[in-house]
Amino acid sequence: MRRLSFLLVGILVIIPSFVSASFTANSNITISNITLDSGTTSLIIFSGSTSNDMSVNSGQLFVTNPGIFKVGANTTAVKSFKVKKSGLVVVCSNNTTPGTSYVTLPTEAAVYIVEPVTTVCSTEIVIPSCSAVTYGEWGACSAGTQIRSVATRTPTSCTLTTNQTALLSRTCSITPTPTPPVIEVTPTPASQLESRAIKNVALYNRLKGNILLKTEDLGKAYYVHPSSKNIYYLGRPHDAFVIMREQGVGITNNNLKKITIGVEQMSGADQDGDALSDLFEDAIGTNKNKADSDDDGHSDRTELLGNYNPLGAGKLSVDTNFMKAQRGRILLQVEGKGEAWYINPKDNKRYFLGRPSDAFYIMRNVGMGISNTDFNSL
């Protein structure tokens, strides 16, 4: 391939839209007409930077498959540099010393956009690529394509690589098969579920609202009602779902927003692959077809993990006193579709109880162990 080397030092170079077959900067190169808010600025590509391709188009700097690639700016108007991949910010670096400070691009093979910004970096915006991903089951074949969602990812708030994203879909063909009989699982009526009154008031006051797991009896799960002094056996996932519905209390959307959202593993469809189920996104109002609902460069999941607003700027507004008052309750969205949330007494956050299996997972995952002796003393 043809190698393009730039030998100009200290000269303003205005580069039109182009793509180089192979790029090496043998000296610092200044590129003008890069978009900065409503105006333009210049960027510096530092000497020694390499990549397979580089282009400047419509005021943006594109870099393909970088090696060691460093970009800076010689003006105080530029406070930081954002590096984006597939619309998400993967690296941010502050322009602490104009002309000397720089951002280093990732070396993972991909197309990156380098953007100068008039604000400094925030700690929550760096989104690493996933080092490991596990996928859910394939969905039904539709129009020659099957899709599946991401079950788990490492680290939790990472963004998928190009290859990992490609594995979310595959071509398929439909083979007619006999329709199996539908077997409906009927939840046990609440009146038939195991429950009893608690007589040990002192122990009840310590445990009310918690999920108890009997560590000496196969981890059986029980829900201690936060106000009725009753304890309920959760049993099967459908039984846990019955308890959730029977013991839940209604709450308005405005009051529900006062409680911090706890993000846990979720099952079910996830059309945008952001590790937030479609049911969950419908409940909180984000776009289940976009990993980044407000197009700010941060995925909805990443923003929720930092208690940032996935639908706008800034932090989510919560009321700590209100949160404490809801400890251990199961809340139902009366202005929605009756979506249910469990308020964990350990952190006062609300956890989504989307489907019976989700409710069962959350209740067991946030539960606290109890010995048979302490349990029997209730």
Give an overview of the whole structure.
The chain is an alpha+beta fold and 378 residues long. Helix content is 16%, strand content 29%. It contains nine helices and 25 strands. The strands form six sheets. Strands 1-3-6-7-12-9-10 form a seven-stranded mixed sheet, with no helix packed on it. The chain has a five-stranded mixed sheet with strand order 2-4-5-8-11, with no helix packed on it. The protein has a five-stranded mixed sheet with strand order 17-20-19-18-25. Strand 19 (220-224) and strand 20 (230-233) form a beta hairpin. Helix 3 (237-247) packs across helix 8. The chain is elongated, with a radius of gyration of 27 Å.
Number of helices: 9
Strand order of the largest sheet: 1-3-6-7-12-9-10
**Percent helix:** 10-25%
Number of strands: 25
**Overall pLDDT confidence:** 81
Catalogue the unreliable spans. Answer: 1-21
| Global Rg | 27 Å
Distance between the termini: 78 Å
Tell me the β content: 25-35%
From the spread of the alpha carbons, the general shape counts as elongated
Structural class by sheet pairing and helices: alpha+beta
Main β-sheet description: 7 strands, mixed
